[in-house]
Design goal:
335 residues, alpha/beta, Rossmann fold, UDP-galactose 4-epimerase, domain 1, seven-stranded parallel sheet, two-stranded parallel ribbon, 12 helices, 13 strands, 41% helix
Length: 335
């Protein structure tokens, strides 16, 4: 039974990856921060299954700013594969907390690479990089050869981590890969991300629990895919004969306005009656024309995205509608 270790296991990608690996017969170990709450909603269905948790799924308390504890977990688990998904991943928030973003995302990755090079044998390593490393590129679409030109603290931290993975791969012969992932969403996306905010608002307004939706720039465009598709690519990358970096993207641009229109269409409402512009949600600077070319992943990994943009937003909105219909008080408390 192969063993995998996942940092950021309680997040969107971590939960989908856990399900995928368990289905493939892995023993899965996840890193949980000591400051985490007891509620791990994305993993609850696994955590409370006695045939899985404690049998093939295990959680360990550790943090990347505490190398001694983290190294102890690595030695105990002796993973065959490590999937490094942890980090402060909200771009807007990175302007508010740039130091902690860089410490968690950049230095945290470096600390983990240092620990891995001491393990014998060295496990295969996946690092979740981001399209934010490209900033405002002159090359459209972006691929693995596109130069890094980040324009926000999160993108800078990811660029550092991405380069360090390449350095350790070349210098220490570590099987280490960067998955340069463009935006990917799901019903498990955090509520402070714009796609989830829009889908939740559409459902809430439909149920009479909310009156308006306040957004900043709705013309901003992104390459949006489904997280389920992207974790499948993570696994494929670590099954190859040699380690390489791959852009993971749909190759299609959609605007925030497109998300709004699809979400409100899903619940049968006219978005024009509810959308309000609010300058408080504008970012200091917004990346432009971030759209990926995943032809290398298609050729080498035989990977392509399967869920369309419309299917993604519809799924997210319908899930919100179902949840709020059963738990209307949760939306009132959030408001």
């Amino acid at each position: 039974m192969r063993r995998a270790l996942i940092t950021g296991i309680t997040g969107q990608d971590g939960s989908y990856l856990t399900e995928l690996l368990l289905d493939k017969g892995y023993q899965v170990h996840g890193i949980v921060r000591r400051t985490s709450t007891l509620g791990r909603s994305r993993l609850d269905h696994l955590y409370h299954d006695t045939t899985i948790y404690g049998q093939r799924l295990f959680l360990h308390y550790a943090e990347l700013d505490d190398p001694t504890t983290f190294r102890r977990v690595l030695i105990k688990v002796a993973p065959d594969e490590i999937y490094h998904l942890a980090g402060q991943s909200h771009v807007g928030l990175s302007f508010e907390i740039p130091e902690s973003t860089c410490d968690m995302t950049a230095m945290g990755t470096l600390r983990l690479l240092e620990m891995i090079r001491d393990l014998k044998p060295m496990p295969r390593f996946f690092h979740a990089s981001s399209s934010e490393i490209f900033g405002t590129p002159t090359i459209v679409p972006q691929d693995e050869q596109t130069p890094c030109a980040p324009i926000n603290p999160y993108g800078c931290a990811k660029a550092f981590a991405t380069h360090m993975v390449g350095v350790y791969r070349r210098t220490f012969d570590l099987f280490a890969c960067n998955g340069i992932m463009f935006n990917h969403e799901s019903p498990r996306r955090g509520e402070n991300f714009v796609t989830r905010k829009i889908c939740r608002a559409a459902a809430s307004i439909k149920l009479g629990l909310q009156n308006d939706l306040f957004l900043g720039d709705t013309t901003a465009q992104r390459d949006w895919g489904h997280a389920r598709d992207y974790v499948r690519a993570m696994w494929l990358m670590l099954q190859q004969e040699k380690p390489e970096d791959f852009v993971l993207a749909t190759g299609q641009l959609h605007s925030v306005q497109d998300v709004v229109e699809q979400a409100f269409a899903t619940v049968g409402l006219d978005w024009r009656q509810y959308l309000k512009k609010d300058s408080r949600f504008l970012r200091p600077i917004e990346p432009q024309r971030l759209v990926g070319n995943a032809s290398k992943a298609k050729c080498v990994l035989n990977w392509t995205h399967e869920v369309t943009f419309a299917e993604l937003i519809t799924e997210m909105t319908e899930r919100e509608l179902s949840f709020l219909a059963k738990n209307p008080r949760s939306e009132a408390q959030a408001a």
